[in-house]
Design a protein that fits this description.
Layout lengths: L3 E3 L2 E3 L2 E5 H5 L11 H7 L8 H33 L8 E7 L5 H13 L7 E5 L7 H6 L14 H12 L5 E7 L4 E10 L4 E5 L22 E6 L2 H16 L18 H24 L8 E5 L5 E7 L2
Parallel strand pairs: 4-8, 4-9, 5-8, 9-10
Antiparallel strand pairs: 1-2, 3-11, 6-7, 10-11
Helix pairs in contact: 3-4, 7-8
Length: about 325
């Protein structure tokens, strides 16, 4: 958010860092990740390197460690004030951003780095894809072509899930989603059992658009939020690259929902991918995702090479 001058004083909601300035905040945070393990965490067309981990994600890991320790101390003093011990609840981190911007890699990488702290916290990860309505519901409502838009999610169920997590429930379940079949997996659930940290990754998690009878928002349950950002032209290019890589891999699986795209010509594939971006992913980014960016506690801005060059941290 740009500064707004008021008289002689200007105000900004965030502190801005260059890549070099941010890298200095790592201090002595150790690198516990191998190149082989990083390759397993990296998304299909993401080019994240160990240098990127050292300069961007280790400082972020250190910051989160400080924030989480501070929250735990606040929890302790609040329990003292109330005169009874409250149930332990997970620290919840939300990761938002466009399709193809690298949210999944960021989420998996943070899960790995945070879990390697000396205290060995248990870190679970879920994606909000599991809270999409099943395809049959989307088709019945005539919004199959708006999958990923806010109305395609069972927001009430997602809020109920997060409320149970934050209430310290010993076991909470979340639906599972398969990108292969492009649908909710019937009768399969991900079980969350009081982790120390829960990472929630999704497109629209920072929204505050009220619906009829809605008084709580998904964003109300996050302790810290991250928005992965890049120029739209770069994100569109990454989406196109990923689409063509999937044509040679997952789309060739006989059970893939997108199996038909593996058989069409290169020209048809290019037209299809551009159509999906122009009709679905681009409009969703403009209308629902990008407007929430400034609400994040931390914004990671990537360049055309997938490298984070600017970091914005919200002031306390």
């Amino acid at each position: 958010m740009s500064s707004v001058p008021i008289g002689e004083v200007s105000f900004s909601r965030h502190i801005n860092f260059t890549r070099e300035e941010w890298a200095q905040r790592r201090e002595y945070t150790p690198l516990t990740l191998s190149e082989e393990r990083l390759a397993a965490l990296r998304s299909l067309n993401d080019r994240i390197s160990l240098d990127e981990v050292e300069q961007i994600y280790l400082p972020l890991s250190r910051l989160l460690d400080l924030y989480i320790n501070g929250t735990q101390k606040l929890h302790t003093v609040t329990s003292t004030f109330l005169g009874h011990k409250e149930a332990k609840v997970p620290y919840v981190i939300g990761i938002a951003g466009s399709v193809a911007v690298g949210k999944s890699t960021t989420a998996r990488l943070l899960q790995e780095l945070l879990g390697a702290w000396p205290s060995a916290p248990r870190v679970d990860l879920i994606t909000t894809d599991g809270f999409l309505y099943p395809n049959k519901t989307l088709q019945a409502r005539g919004i199959m072509n708006r999958k990923g838009f806010p109305e395609s999610y069972n927001v009430r169920r997602l809020i109920h899930f997060l409320a149970e997590v934050k209430a310290g429930q010993p076991e909470v379940s979340a639906p599972l989603y398969s990108h292969l079949i492009y649908d909710i997996v019937p009768n399969e659930m991900q079980i969350i059992q009081q982790p120390d940290i829960l990472i929630v990754e999704g497109l629209n998690i920072l929204q505050e658009n009220a619906r009829k009878g809605q008084h709580l928002f998904v964003s109300d349950f996050f302790d810290f939020t991250i928005y992965v950002d890049a120029e739209e032209d770069d994100i569109e290019q990454w989406y196109m690259e990923r689409f063509f890589m999937l044509r040679e891999t997952a789309f060739r699986d006989p059970s893939s929902y997108f199996r038909r795209y593996a058989e069409i010509s290169t020209e048809e594939a290019m037209e299809t991918a551009k159509g999906i971006w122009n009709e679905i992913n681009g409009p969703n980014l403009h209308a629902n995702i990008l407007p929430t960016r400034e609400r994040a506690h931390l914004i990671l801005k990537k360049d055309e090479h997938h490298l984070v060059q600017k970091i914005k941290l919200r002031k306390l």
